[in-house]
Amino acid sequence: xxxxxxxxxxxxxxxxxxxxxxxxxxxxxxxxxxxxxxxxxxxxxxxxxxxxxxxxxxxxxxxxxxxxxxxxxxxxxxxxxxxxxxxxxxxxxxxxxxxxxxxxxxxxxxxxxxxxxxxxxxxxxxxxxxxxxxxxxxxxxxxxxxxxxxxxxxxxxxxxxxxxxxxxxxxxxxxxxxxxxxxxxxxxxx
Amino acid sequence: xxxxxxxxxxxxxxxxxxxxxxxxxxxxxxxxxxxxxxxxxxxxxxxxxxxxxxxxxxxxxxxxxxxxxxxxxxxxxxxxxxxxxxxxxxxxxxxxxxxxxxxxxxxxxxxxxxxxxxxxxxxxxxxxxxxxxxxxxxxxxxxxxxxxxxxxxxxxxxxxxxxxxxxxxxxxxxxxxxxxxxxxxxxxxxxxxxxxxxxxxxxxxxxxxxxxxxxxxxxxxxxxxxxxxxxxxxxxxxxxxxxxxxxx
Lengths: 190, 248
Description:
- The structure holds two protein chains of two kinds.
- By secondary structure, chain A is an alpha+beta fold.
- Chain A contains six helices and nine strands.
- Chain A has a three-stranded antiparallel β-sheet. A three-stranded antiparallel β-sheet of chain A has the order 4-6-5.
- In chain A, helix 4 crosses helix 5 and helix 5 (112-119) packs across helix 6.
- In chain B, 52% of the residues lie in helices and 11% in strands.
- In chain B, the strands form two sheets. A five-stranded parallel β-sheet of chain B has the order 2-3-4-1-5, sandwiched between helices. A two-stranded parallel sheet of chain B has the order 6-7.
- Chain B starts with a helix and ends in a 15-residue tail after the last helix.
- Chain B has 13 helices and seven strands.
């Protein structure tokens, strides 16, 4: 079954939920077991276990003794945002949309090419085509304004936060800062 | 690499540009500094040198938080804008509580905070707020501002003592223009003489070079040229950024 778009997923499943539970448990009792985290979600044990294994590999949590037969863990490195970690413990870096969002907030008015050039780093390459697509979608969502046929400007009031509004494959734009869908295909049709 | 390929995935990065290299190494230094050293820094220079544009590379690489000051900003507006940029939900009501939230979030994140148009920090006396954020969170703070920024900041001794480095932005050179041509005119060979004239007309302003290069690209596209030199350019104007003369 394909993964559901982010706004339709259950709030009791997924890494955001597990990480929130871990932080909460850590604040309340310091240490926690796998079952503690599972109990605060509606997810199968193995998916929580897999996420915690990754967190441990990346040094976000560490083992802190035993509670009966179960392993106790505690938070070693805190993060306000859910850590995205690969199986081997390496971090999943910012994606293209994160980079374009940050660059757009900085340079404020830009052609798609300006955005592609300023959003690219040695690890993440944004092409002009991708930048144009992002500009068009965010203009639809009312975040960018089209000032010239090939030039866009960031609307200051739409600086909602650090997380990039994401263009989803289901043709809608989701703003994770506001936690809602800000544009759906078919909303307008200019 | 073919022209098509270079358009699709060969955008390259701005890393080789002079100011990008300067700013990136500045962010690296304040981020990796030993614990006993202060972690504030300035990147200053005349308007149009492409300071903010140059900062995008390091900002993305280091996951920095970025706030641009405004002329009308008060302490409260500054604190709230930083909280928004940090993604803190449920902002506190008073400035002092908001400061606690900022300090906590930055201390956890450990990423640099970049404040642009930082001249307003000095003129409005908000600079001590920023110093407090830096002192309590330990997060590196990089201020971007006009040429006079270090002079303005030196009036506050406590701020001045916390600056690890003052780095002046440099005017764009012909080498920068060459690299910008690779980024902005992929698939078009722009001759060196044309590039040096474009750079000269721009008087060090990277943004003006980009506008001229955009025209080169249009010229190449409309005439199907793979190479553009002084001959193809003819007597077209370079972008100098001057307003049009008064009509008679």
